[in-house]
Write a structure and sequence with these properties.
β4, α4 and β5 form a beta-alpha-beta unit. The protein is of the alpha/beta class and 260 residues long. α1 packs parallel to α2. The protein contains 9 helices and 7 strands; from the N terminus they run βαβαβαβαβαβααβαα. The protein has one domain: Rossmann fold, CATH 3.40.50.720. The relative contact order is 0.13. The chain has a 7-stranded parallel sheet with strand order 3-2-1-4-5-6-7, sandwiched between helices. It is 49% helix and 14% strand. Bound molecules: NADP nicotinamide-adenine-dinucleotide phosphate. NADP nicotinamide-adenine-dinucleotide phosphate binds next to α1 and α6.
């Protein structure tokens, strides 16, 4: 039996990772802040799939969060075979009009916590010469996004970091994958306070989290360094920027994301 830890497992893409990994027979460690939601997901997956599921209620922005998670795993004798770094958030708006604390928390959760958990889990995986790390980036990683500037930049970090580690970890048999979903039907846009007139990024339809997770797990199995989920449309969107001068690209994206 293998064990997967999923951050942000209480809703959206993370909850679907929990479901699909349980269906494949993995034991789970579910991490997020919402205790009731996590427990309900764990109870349902235990009874449906007969797996073990451990709930760790943890605000990943709290001091000592990652050390606390790993000490709980140690006490319970759990070695991780798969880490899914999924917890993250964005916030819409002009940088100067938002709260500085929100941006710094975003960088902390989307980047620092992800690097911290990756570093900690790699220690055991390197010794055991096996394991997988799946980091959730975004199609936002491929171009600057005015009014979503910090978020897009954090996701560029996640993709670059994941691809570099994919190479570094090959000699000891650890797989690393950066997953780039396009707009997906979750709580994300509500949390990000997208304007009512713009419930999701303009001109793009929402994918189901089930599709995103299916494509991500397939890419992980195939040993890819990255995957843009959502088929040809997202492939075209993320590659379009390569052939356009950067300022022109940024202006086009900015015009799309601006509320007049
Ligand atoms: N939806 C999209 O369009 C989309 C597209 C590309 C990439 N992504 C990425 O996909 C990932 C999952 O997002 P989602 O779309 O599934 O959104 P979501 O439904 O809002 O889920 C976010 C998850 O992160 C957890 N979380 C947030 N802050 C946390 C904290 N401080 N400590 C612990 N857990 C925290 C939330 O749980 P609690 O509130 O219970 O803590 C929740 O489980 C994110 O990294 C996001 O950037 C989303």
């Amino acid at each position: 039996m293998t064990t997967a830890l999923i951050t942000g497992a209480s809703s959206g893409i993370g909850a679907v990772f929990a479901e699909q990994l349980a269906a494949q027979g993995h034991d789970l460690v579910l991490v997020a802040r919402s205790q009731e939601k996590l427990q309900a997901i764990a109870d349902q997956l235990i009874s449906t799939y007969g797996i073990n599921a451990t709930v760790i209620v943890q605000d990943l922005l709290a001091e000592g969060a990652t050390a606390n998670i790993f000490s709980q795993l140690e006490v319970q004798g759990i070695d991780l075979d798969l880490l899914v770094n999924n917890a993250g958030f964005g916030t819409y708006g002009e940088l100067a009009d938002g709260e500085l604390t929100t941006y710094l928390n975003m960088i902390q959760l989307n980047i620092s916590v992800l690097v911290d958990l990756t570093y900690r889990v790699l220690q055991g995986m390197k010794v055991r010469r096996s394991g997988s790390i799946l980091n959730i980036s975004s199609t936002a990683a491929f171009q600057p996004i005015p009014y979503f500037a910090v978020y897009a930049a954090t996701k560029s970090f996640v993709l670059s970091f994941s691809e570099a580690l994919w190479y570094e970890c090959q000699p000891y048999g650890v797989k690393v994958l950066g997953v780039c979903p396009g707009p997906t039907e979750t709580q994300f846009f509500k949390t990000a306070a997208f304007p009512d007139a713009m419930e999701s990024p303009p001109g793009q339809s929402l994918a189901s989290p089930a599709e995103v997770v299916r494509e991500a797990l397939k890419a992980l199995e195939q040993g890819q360094s990255n995957v843009v989920t959502g088929g040809l449309t997202n492939q075209i969107l993320v590659n379009a920027g390569r052939f356009i001068p950067r300022e022109m690209l940024t202006k086009a994206v900015g015009d799309m994301f601006k509320v007049n």
